[in-house]
Amino acid sequence: MKPEMSTAVMIERVRELSVTSQESVLLNLVANRIELLLATESGISLELNSIRCALGIPPGESVHAGVVNECVRLNGEILELRNRLAAYDRAANTLKQQLAAERALVPTKVTVYQPFEVDGVDMDCIRDRTGRSDEYCEGFFDGLLDAERQIREYKDGDA
After folding, report:
1. Burial classification of residue 14, based on how many CB atoms lie within 10 Å of its CB (0-12 exposed, 13-18 middle, 19 or more buried)
2. Distances (CA, A) of 63 to 51, 59, 92
3. How many CB atoms lie within 10 A of CB 57?
């Protein structure tokens, strides 16, 4: 059994087989065509090896099968991310609805001043939807009433 010869040696042997010039031209064309096909195969082989290396395809698996497996894996990841995003969107919408419901329960201030009377004195204050006056207004009026009492006491003390 002879050892296998390399492609380059095979091409040179084909070129040497020619006896006549016509055979020489024909065999040279065949040898050139073989070299061209080998160069093309080598380029494709280089591209396939690059793909194999980039995707981590084992040597025993075809590049086509490895590319298909990688596409299936990436598609699975995309679907998982899409499902997670949809779940986040649902959670965000639920939180928005809860926030809107809570805001509806919180009294909001009305921009209209409503007159009312404290110890015979007409006052204006912002009131909320429930009819309660603003805490600031209540504190302010308590302070006014205290000041009014102090003034009365001072006047009564001078008299």
Report:
1. middle
2. 7, 9, 43
3. 20
Task: Return all residues near 27 (Cβ < 8 A) that are at least 6 apart.
Answer: 14, 15, 17, 18
The gap from C-alpha 122 to its chain's centroid, in whole angstroms, comes to: 60
- Please provide residue 123's backbone torsions phi and psi, each rounded to the nearest 5 degrees: -130, 155
Q: What is the pLDDT of residues 106-159, one digit of tens each?
A: 655 544 445 555 555 555 555 555 555 555 555 666 666 777 778 878 777 765
Q: What is the pLDDT of residues 40-80, one digit of tens each?
A: 777 777 888 888 889 898 878 888 888 999 999 999 999 99
Q: Give me the DSSP letters along 132-155.
A: PBPHHHHHHHHHHHHHHHHHHHHH
Which residue, among 63, 68, 36, has the nearest Cα to 52 in the 3D structure?
63
Contact residues for 98 (Cβ-Cβ < 8 A; gap 6+): none
Exposed / middle / buried, residue 48 (Cβ in 10 Å: 0-12, 13-18, 19+): middle
Burial 110-141 (b: 16+ CB within 10 A, else e): eeeeeeeeeeeeebebebeeeeebeeebeeeb
**Tokens describing residue 133:** 């006056």
